[in-house]
Write a structure and sequence with these properties.
It comes from Paenibacillus xanthanilyticus. This is DUF1572 family protein. InterPro entries: DinB/YfiT-like (IPR034660), DUF1572 (IPR011466). Helix content is about 60%, strand content about 5%. The protein is mainly α. The chain has one domain: Four Helix Bundle (Hemerythrin (Met), subunit A), CATH 1.20.120. The chain has a two-stranded antiparallel sheet. Strand 1 and strand 2 form a beta hairpin. Helix 1 runs parallel beside helix 4, helix 2 packs parallel to helix 3 and helix 2 packs antiparallel against helix 4.
Length: about 190
C-alpha cells in the first residue's frame, strides 16, 4: 500500500467515525425531543435504567474518555461511574445540557485528530489501545446505549411515537422515492 492510499484510508476512517457518532446523536436527539419530563424517568421495570440514567452514564463516559484523549487515561480519577447509575433528580433541561456537553466533548476531540494519530496508543483503564480501537470501542458502546434510549423512548410514547426511520409498511414507498431521486440525479 502506498503512503497516499494509507493517508486516504486514515482520513476516511476519521470522517466515517465522526459521521457514525453524529448519526447516533441524531437518533438520540430525535428520541429525546418526543419526551415529556416524566418520560426521562420512565422505566419498563424496576431493574431497567431510565433515559435520565442512560444520559448521565453517557455524559460521564464521554467526558472521561474524550477529555485529554491522547495524553491521559480515558478513565479519569475524578469520574464516579457508580453515581452515573443513580437518579440525581436533574430536570430534562439539565439532562439535555449534559447530553450536549458529552457529545460536544467527543466530537470536538475527534475533529482535532489527524490521520497520523490513528495508530497512536491511548490508555483506557490502564490498557493500551490504538486510537482506531478506542474510537470503535466507543462507537459500539454508545450505539448500545443510544439503542436503549431509543427503545425506552419508543416504549414510553407507545402509539404516539414518531418513527425515526422508515415507518412500518412503508418500505416500498421509501424505495420508490429513493429510486426517483437517483434517476433525477442522473439526469442532471
Amino acid at each position: 500500500m502506498n503512503p497516499e492510499t494509507k493517508l486516504d484510508l486514515a482520513e476516511h476512517v476519521l470522517v466515517q467515525s465522526i459521521r457514525d457518532f453524529e448519526s447516533l446523536k441524531k437518533l438520540g436527539d430525535k428520541s429525546l425531543a418526543q419526551l415529556s419530563e416524566a418520560g426521562f424517568r420512565w422505566v419498563p421495570d424496576p431493574e431497567s435504567n431510565s433515559i435520565a440514567i442512560i444520559i448521565n452514564h453517557l455524559h460521564g463516559n464521554m467526558l472521561s474518555r474524550w477529555t485529554d484523549f491522547l495524553t491521559t487515561d480515558g478513565e479519569k480519577p475524578d469520574r464516579n461511574r457508580d453515581a452515573e447509575f443513580e437518579d440525581d433528580g436533574a430536570s430534562s433541561a439539565e439532562l439535555i445540557a449534559r447530553w450536549e456537553q458529552g457529545w460536544a466533548t467527543l466530537l470536538g476531540t475527534l475533529k482535532t485528530l489527524t490521520p497520523d494519530d490513528l495508530l497512536r496508543t491511548v490508555t483506557i483503564r490502564g490498557e493500551g489501545h490504538t486510537v482506531v480501537q478506542a474510537v470503535h470501542r466507543q462507537i459500539s458502546h454508545y450505539g448500545y446505549h443510544v439503542g436503549q434510549l431509543v427503545y425506552a423512548a419508543k416504549a414510553y410514547r407507545s402509539s404516539a411515537w414518531r418513527t425515526l426511520s422508515i415507518p412500518k409498511g412503508g418500505s416500498s414507498a421509501f424505495n420508490a422515492a429513493k429510486g426517483e431521486e437517483a434517476a433525477e440525479r442522473h439526469k442532471g
